[in-house]
Structure formats: structure tokens, C-alpha cells
UniProtKB/TrEMBL annotation:
<feature type="domain" description="TfuA-like core">
    <location>
        <begin position="52"/>
        <end position="169"/>
    </location>
</feature>
<dbReference type="InterPro" id="IPR012924">
    <property type="entry name" value="TfuA_core"/>
</dbReference>
<protein>
    <recommendedName>
        <fullName>TfuA-like core domain-containing protein</fullName>
    </recommendedName>
</protein>
<dbReference type="Pfam" id="PF07812">
    <property type="entry name" value="TfuA"/>
</dbReference>
Length: 221
């Protein structure tokens, strides 16, 4: 049986199906929601990778349904977004976590669902807002590069965290930071330019790690 008929990946927001397929030959479904993993297992998929998932617009993938397919012998790998969140909660039940975001959730560095949540295009699943995990690391990089100082970085991260996940963007954050007097107009423009050109896309990095981990598992068969 080929990898494509045995392996299923839930993705689309953190990495496109087209880009993911260049790394791993598998079947790709949209971000996971309630009931999807049981359906996948019933269709014969033996290795399931969870990268992206539905958070607030529909019922999210439940812990019990993931545990059930693991008990039935399905290998479930998670990382990046919903996959990282569920893996941090279910690694004791046999779900395998991969990547930085998984480790942050597992170790209590981050706790909230909104850290990885984004607004998406309903037709393409593409992100139309920026995830907090990316924003935080990009702002830290701007701090290291001397664009903003330590206090400014801390205050802008707080500002971003207070912004609803559907409205988070580097443009909005830099402009709001200027309006609230955290940074000057000139510095806001420099910050926005830096973020556009130097974003730390933690979620995409972790999505790739999930795909590579599954590729490694397949190669061992």
C-alpha cells in the first residue's frame, strides 16, 4: 500500500497542501474539526498528522476521538497549531508531538488556544491574520536587531496579546503601538518593515517538522 493511501494530513492554514505535498506524498484534508479523525480512521488511514484545526467557528477535534483511534492502532502525530495543542494534552495517551509550539504547550510556556489561532479564508484555508506565536518571536527578533528596545518589545507583545486573534497583524500592531505612544511614527514604520521582511514563521517551521517526522516513520516500515 502506498504512503498516499495510508497517510493523511490535516493542514491548510500553516502550510498549503501544495507546499506540503512537495515534502510528503500523502492525502491532505482541510484543518481538522470534530468527527474528522474518526472518519479518516474508518477510511483506512494508518498514520494521521494533525497540523491545523478548527478552533472557534466549529467544534474542535475532541480528545476522546483522538485517543480512540490511537487505541485502534493508528499513529497520530501532531505539531504546529491544533496538532501541537492536542499533542501536549495527549502525549501521555500515545499521540506524538513535534516542534517548538508543541514543546511550549507541553512545558507551560504558553497555554491559550489563541496563541496559534488565526482567521482564515474559508475557501482556501489560508491565514488572513498573524498567529501570536509568530508575532511574539518576530518582535523579539526586532528587539535583538535594535529596532525596538526591551520595554517597547514587552509592551507591544502585551498589546498584540490583547488584540483579538482575528485582528492580529503586523500593520495593526505597529500602528496601534504608535497611537498609544509606545513607539514613534518613524519607529513604527521601521518595525512594520522589519516584520514584513523578517517574520519568524514558527508555525510553518513546525508544520514542516511534522511532515518530515511522518516521512521518517514511513521510511522505517
Amino acid at each position: 500500500m502506498s504512503a498516499r493511501t495510508e497517510v493523511l494530513i490535516f493542514a491548510g492554514s500553516s502550510i498549503s497542501h501544495e507546499d506540503a505535498a512537495k515534502i510528503l506524498d500523502a492525502t491532505y484534508w482541510p484543518p481538522i474539526s470534530r468527527g474528522d479523525i474518526g472518519k479518516a480512521a474508518s477510511e483506512g488511514y494508518k498514520i494521521i498528522g494533525i497540523i491545523d484545526g478548527i478552533f472557534f467557528s466549529r467544534a474542535a477535534a475532541a480528545h476522546k476521538e483522538i485517543i480512540n483511534v490511537i487505541k485502534d492502532g493508528v499513529t497520530v502525530i501532531g505539531g504546529c497549531s491544533m496538532g501541537a495543542l492536542r499533542a501536549s494534552e495527549l502525549d501521555i495517551h500515545g499521540m506524538e508531538g513535534v516542534g517548538t509550539v508543541y514543546e511550549w504547550y507541553r512545558d507551560g510556556v504558553i497555554e491559550d488556544d489563541d496563541e496559534v489561532a488565526v482567521a482564515t479564508n474559508p475557501d482556501t484555508f489560508e491565514s488572513v491574520s498573524s498567529p501570536m506565536v509568530n508575532i511574539r518571536e518576530t518582535l523579539k527578533a526586532a528587539n535583538s536587531a535594535g529596532i525596538i528596545d526591551d520595554d517597547e518589545c514587552r509592551l507591544i507583545i502585551q498589546l498584540a496579546k490583547k488584540t483579538h486573534y482575528t485582528e492580529r497583524s503586523y500593520f495593526g500592531i505597529s500602528r496601534t503601538a504608535e497611537k498609544e505612544g509606545i513607539i514613534s511614527k518613524e519607529k513604527a514604520e521601521r518595525l512594520l518593515q522589519f516584520c514584513k521582511e523578517n517574520e519568524r514563521d514558527i508555525k510553518r517551521e513546525d508544520a514542516i517538522l511534522v511532515l518530515k517526522k511522518i516521512k521518517e516513520i514511513i521510511s522505517e516500515f
